[in-house]
Design brief:
Number of strands: 3
Largest sheet: 3 strands, mixed
Strand order of the largest sheet: 1-3-2
Shape: globular
Number of helices: 2
Structural class: alpha+beta
Radius of gyration: 15 Å
Strand content: 15-25%
Distance between the termini: 27 Å
Length: 120
Amino acid sequence: MQRITGIGGIFFRSDNPKELTDWYVTHLGLDMKDDGFWSQPAGLTVFAPFKRDTDYFGRLDQQWMINFRVADMDAMIAQLEGAGIEVETRADWDSEIGRFARLHDPEGNPIELWEPSQNC
């Protein structure tokens, strides 16, 4: 049986794709190449459909939430807050797999940050 090997892309609608891409590059350090590709180090990727009525990632009409791995959560939060971006943390989000934080991009799309624990 052939199997998928990873996520090949994330596609979503935007009112201003260039401006939104620039926000991700500026504030989250997305290393976007001119050709639109992002080369990233290997690591775990979670694939987790949620029940339709979950409030885990915000509004009930929100269909998706992206999760980005980070190496240093405290430094990333300080960087974002220094740029005036609100970041939410809650102790009950942290677990044996790591630490988590949430923010929204300028178009209101939810973003989860994940600093994996050493055993992930």
